[in-house]
């Protein structure tokens, strides 16, 4: 794992993330991001627009949190190494959980105007957050759930609020239970289908990342094969089926556009995409409806229950 020294802005290699205190950045990518190769030469890095978020992250981590290190995905992963990229993606949920604080930079959130009451301020903030691109991206789902401590900043890096104080707003915006937002260990009590529904309206640049961005949500580790397309999401579901006896994995409904597809279509037992779980947002554990002692297995003839 590579960490940025918040004083020198140089990368340092560490073996165990749990042995070091660091801040971690959650953001949406834009033009001119500083890459792993760029940051080897600070003169090159400072010539790119993305350096401003690195400097801001390090400044807050160093001055406000007295942290020696920070981690930012754009420049702390050598994406030219498939092995390093695979390790990072499979470890990312743990890294966000291990971080002392996650700083969320909402690049499209305008500074909040002052309001007469706290209620008015929260309503204004809730409306503004729903419009932020950060809440529409696949990768930021686990970045919202995993951290123990999270702080939100607007486009000018002005502090907006902490996750602990915004549970109701964040829950209403994302559909994720406040109990999960406050303690990611409670993920295991949420049916698989409901967890999938959280990603139904989120987008990723590459189709494979629809699956890869959910690995931490389900506690799954698997090899990355960019170029496999929708097979990545099928592999994810197969891995979930091996690890869990949660039958809600199979209650998805095929979606087409904005409407449920009612036309018959030959398909397997697995969904094609997280969007097929769109209608599963209200599924709850009830009398162990989906979590029971019945074993099931995927065979060459299909599902055996």
Automatic annotation (TrEMBL):
Organism the protein comes from: Fusarium vanettenii (strain ATCC MYA-4622 / CBS 123669 / FGSC 9596 / NRRL 45880 / 77-13-4)
Protein's name according to its UniProt entry: Heterokaryon incompatibility domain-containing protein
Superkingdom classification of source: Eukaryota
Residues covered by the Heterokaryon incompatibility domain: 22-108
